[in-house]
Inverse folding.
């Protein structure tokens, strides 16, 4: 099996991270992987915000938890977040950001870094408690966050074997 397929087939979401920092170089490489994702009509109207401040990450987690009625929510305590945001008026912003996040997740896995998709911000970006934190992170007010990559080193062993289902139908 080639390396790309092996990387795709063995990547797993991780929801418990070690209290260990990621290097700036690794985070720069992961952001670059996001930037190189396809975007509709090559608009590239996204912005990638990398957050390594643990206190700020937990303030965001608390604000999300409060907004969604999940008081104990902690974003799984990642070492870092990569937050792609996109113009609210970009018709394909959600899809563009999903492609970017997938690139980030696959690149992270290839580097031995674990990840999980965080999707709670969509729909609540403009709530005052959330928007205040997004402003602090310099995420533009005319942007929306459809998902985030929570990143770090897995606290536990990651099981590479998983049953995946779906249908494949060839039309020839």
């Amino acid at each position: 099996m080639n390396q790309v397929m092996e990387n795709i087939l063995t990547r797993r979401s991780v929801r418990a991270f070690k209290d260990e920092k990621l290097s700036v170089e690794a985070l720069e490489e992961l952001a670059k992987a996001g930037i190189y994702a396809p975007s509709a009509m090559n608009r590239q109207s996204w912005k990638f915000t990398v957050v390594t401040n643990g206190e700020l990450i937990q303030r965001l987690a608390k604000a999300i938890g409060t907004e969604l009625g999940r008081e104990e929510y902690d974003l799984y305590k990642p070492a870092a977040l990569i937050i792609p945001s996109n113009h609210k008026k970009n018709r394909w912003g959600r899809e563009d950001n999903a492609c970017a996040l997938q690139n980030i997740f696959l690149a992270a896995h290839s580097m031995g870094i674990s990840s999980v998709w965080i999707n709670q911000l969509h729909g609540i970006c403009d709530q005052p408690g959330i928007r205040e934190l997004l402003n602090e992170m310099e995420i533009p007010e005319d942007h929306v966050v459809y998902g985030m990559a929570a990143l770090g080193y897995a606290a536990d062993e990651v099981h590479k074997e998983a049953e995946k289902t779906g249908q494949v139908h060839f039309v020839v």
User: Anything to note?
Assistant: The first strand starts at residue 46 and ends at 51. The chain has a mean pLDDT of 94. Residues 93-110 form the longest helix (18 residues). Helices lie at 3-10, 24-35, 54-68, 93-110, 128-136.
